[in-house]
Amino acid sequence: MASSTTSLPVRGSFGQTMRPDAWWVQPVAVFLGLTVALIYLNWAAFQGEFYALGNYLSPLYSPEIFGDTSHALFGPRPNIWPEWLPWSPAFLILWAPAGFRVTCYYYRGAYYKAFWADPPSCSVGEPRKSYLGERSLPLILQNVHRYFLYLALIFIVILSFDAWRALWFLDPATGEETLGLGVGTLVLALNAILLGGYTLGCHSLRHLVGGGLDVLFDKPIRRTAHACVGCLNKRHMLWAWMSLFWVCFTDLYVRLCSMGIWTDLRLF
Amino acid sequence: MATATFKIWRGNAEGGEFKEYTTELTEGMVVLDAMHQVQAEQAHDLALRWNCKAGKCGSCSAEVNGRPKLMCMTRMGDLPTDHPITVEPLKAFPLIKDLVTDVSWNHEVKKRIKPFKPRAPDFEDGSWEMHQQDVDRVQEFRKCIECYLCQDVCHVLREHHMHDDFIGPRFLVHIAALEMHPLDIEDRREDLRKSQGIGLCNITKCCTTVCPEGITITDNAIIPLKERVVDQAYDPVKKLIQLFTGRGKERKA
Q1: Interface residue B187 vs chain A (CB under 8 A)
Q2: Is the pLDDT of residue B250 over 80?
Q3: Which residues 156-175 of B are in CB contact (within 8 Å) with A?
């Protein structure tokens, strides 16, 4: 384009800025938040046990395609799974919501700052002088986000069903399922709500339901859907963090109850 | 009488340095007032650009305490005065003198963007029918005053100097206003992907945070454009569906 870039000011060095405020607080907070979540989620996924308690199933293991609990759709671990390979039912499903989060527009902006310092914060010097952005490999693959969205939408249905199942408790005396409400039911329901708020506020969904069109006047359903998704999208960052925290806590709740460390309180 | 000390960048493209000036503050003062006061009382050759003094012309863009700001809209009362307040020129453009930069690169970029191309008139008198709901979306983008603060804070331009490959947030907003207009039938997606470098934006939202008009640049302009580029170049399933159904072309008549 223009050739006027030759006399641009000299680039700053890493961290160089005239900002007097604590600009590093936000990227450090994001770095710590995401690191703690990543460590916990990986640890929990590798456990492969204590992820279900009666009608409660940890969201990190749902749907349980193969597994040893009553929630398993197709029975125990398949024999074709190599013995030398670590096994956990979470391995079969967790890649989908993980992919959705990794390619999420909000998280991308957040971890580019917090993990790559690209930039570390607004108007703060960067550590590297070269820059590729998202127009070439590997980051061009971020454009796959909408495919992960399709999968994430299926997960919302499944996790909502899990919350519904968490309302039905097995009566040991009669062997029948009866309607009830435990703290775990509320935890699982809130998990589905928060993940729903995050997923349904996705930028790609906003585009797909109507944002890709220039004229929405004659499409009332898509116009309404676009407005609804846009409404959730305004707080996408908040939904992203709340749902991430709560999905970890939901797993922790089910896990500790399953291990007998916590006792699930039945409200009725 | 309260005073404030400023560290103002003095120099040109060959070099320069910060010089300190202490000046008196009066109630309701903005940084631009302080610069004018310094210019009148202590540094008659201080170069700064300004015009409306009302946050509408976009002329007095500078960096105040390291943040891109309109000097006329930055109240002294909002700045801590226990340390010197730094005032610098924009970093993404060549420096002319003191606080004045050469922003003509932006004008050249704008000339290269495909202009508004309306569909054929809807009525015999040459007029069109549009609905408010469809126009509302692009109205936000038309608030832009071209202060270029978003261009300045964008690290692709500011840090990496990729002016040859990337048009910057200001012009992505401009393209969004054209591309999403209900009458426009031009397709700018190929240009966005190739020559205008939308893939270089990594969505850190710095442009949104500095916009004095409060335009939600990243969420409402850049990401929707990125999604449109995905439609055109990176979504094979959508292309396949379009191939078989012929649908999906309704966006552009």
Answers
A1: no
A2: no
A3: 156, 158-165, 167
**Looking at the complex, does the CB of residue A20 fall below 8 Å from at least one CB of chain B?**
yes
Residues A183 and A264 sit within 8 Å (Cβ to Cβ): yes
Is A10 inside any structural domain?
A: no
Residue among A70, A95, A69, A62 at smallest CA distance from A192: A62
Select the residue of B133, B198, B200 nearest A223 (Cβ to Cβ): B133
- Looking at residue B148, its pLDDT comes to 98
- Cβ(A98)–Cβ(A230) below 8 Å: no
Beta bridge partners, B63, equal: B68, B88
CA distances from B201 to A116, A167, B116 (A): 15, 46, 24
In a domain, A70, yes or no: yes
Q: How far is CA A126 from the centre of its chain?
A: 28
Q: Does a structural domain hold residue A2?
A: no
Domain that holds residue A173: 24-78+86-258
Whether the pLDDT of residue A5 is over 50: the answer is no
Is A240 among the domain residues? yes
Which pLDDT belongs to residue A7?
53
Report pLDDT digits (tens) over A154-173: 999 999 999 999 999 998 88
Which of A133, A83, A13, A214 minimizes the C-alpha distance to B193?
A133
* Exposure letters A25-41 (e unless 16+ CB within 10 A, then b): eebeebbeebeebeebb
**Main-chain dihedrals φ then ψ at residue B30, nearest 5 degrees:** -110, 170
Asked if A109's CB is within 8 angstroms of B203's CB, the reply is: yes
Residue A2 pLDDT > 50: no
Q: In chain A, what residues touch B224 (CB-CB under 8 Å)? A: 203, 206-207, 211-212
Give all domains of chain B, ordered by start, each with its CATH number. 3-101 (3.10.20.30), 104-245 (1.10.1060.10)
Domain count, chain A: 1
Instruction: Specify the pLDDT at position B245.
Output: 77
